[in-house]
Amino acid sequence: MLRRYMPAVISDVEAERERQDAKWGLQRHSYPYWLTILAEEHGEVAQAMQKGSVSYKNSDADDLYTELIHVAAVAVAIAEQVKEERDVAKRD
Predict the structure, then answer these.
(1) Nearest-angstrom CA–CA distance, 82 and 41
(2) Helices marked H in 1-92 — which ranges?
(3) What is the structure's pLDDT at 62?
(4) For residue 77, what are the contacts with CB-CB under 8 A and spacing of at least 6?
């Protein structure tokens, strides 16, 4: 059953979020800007999925798992901001 891998995957996403925070600090962006970041990461997933195909270039991302973790971590960062904004709105 694939669910047995979920704890390790979630742990890797958490580690990536910590790495992002250490590198960039707390990020709060407009949603269109977040979409740009998420789309860029999504593009790297697409590149990694193309590895070995005729359209693959040596400059493309090639570690599918790592790129998927990046997408998940960016999505978590966006969700954290959404939750924070909702909590602030409830207090006001």
Answers:
(1) 19
(2) 6-24, 31-49, 64-91
(3) 67
(4) 17, 20, 27, 34
**How far apart, in Å, do the first and last CA atoms of the chain sit?**
45
Angle between helices 6-24 and 64-91 (to 10 degrees): 70
Give domain limits for the chain.
Answer: 2-91
**Per-residue pLDDT for 56 more than 70?**
no
Query: 49, 64 in Cβ contact below 8 A?
Result: yes
Q: What pTM value is reported for the model?
A: 0.87
Indicate whether 59 pLDDT > 70.
no
Q: Under a CB-based contact definition with an 8 Å cutoff, are residues 76 and 17 in contact?
A: yes
Residue listed under structure tokens 């593009």:
43
Residue with tokens 């990461």: 41
Q: How far is CA 27 from CA 17, 30, 45, 55, 76, in A?
A: 11, 10, 22, 34, 12
